Amino acid sequence: MSSPAHKLEVRDLACIRGDRRLFDGVSFTLEPGALLFLGGANGAGKTSLLRLLCGLSPAESGDIRWNGKPIGEQAGAFRGELCYLGHQNALQEALTVEENLRFLAALGGCTPPQGAIPRALARLGLHRCERRFVRQLSQGQKRRVALARLLLTAATLWVLDEPFVALDTAAVKLVAGLLEEHLARGGMAIYTSHQPVEIAARSSRSLQLAARVATPRLAARAAASLTAEAAL
User: Fold this and answer.
1) Measuring CA to CA, how many Å separate 225 from each of 13, 76, 94, 232?
2) What's the predicted TM-score (pTM) here?
């Protein structure tokens, strides 16, 4: 899955949303086996930072490199090494569990082999659920379905926004175990969580984001933008 060449480098990353500078000067490096916990109060910019790291949103300034090259210059290759699980489950209620997982796997550029989906679901405690419609599931079951994607990908870098939400104690321990297995294989992971979870890793660190207030310059810029939009 991974090799010593794989490396995620983040340098002086800054993000502005509306009239607020959410964060700036964010820098870190992840190498095989490394785990990064991203903390901070609601509104500090955790989800925004994760989206920047995945190339889903533009940064105000700074640099994100994968294996020494900017992610924007190798979008396809980077996406092939990335598995992003957002705060929302990203499941279609009108589709079955299996249809959802096959669709999400296809978006990630892979096709699960025969039997892989039932095995992944069983590992997450969802035995024989592949033909059930997502709308029939509880919130905890839906979260487990979303997390089953982790067992259907060969991605090196996992970026997980609140992976433990809506899970009971046993499921939290199970997902922590999946993370530990991924890291032991040489994978990397970045995650947020509002609850403390013990995850063993050869290299583990945390990054705390602090909520910021609007500055007069940014507030003026946001007001000017709104005025321009209203004039259109």
Assistant:
1) 23, 33, 39, 11
2) 0.88
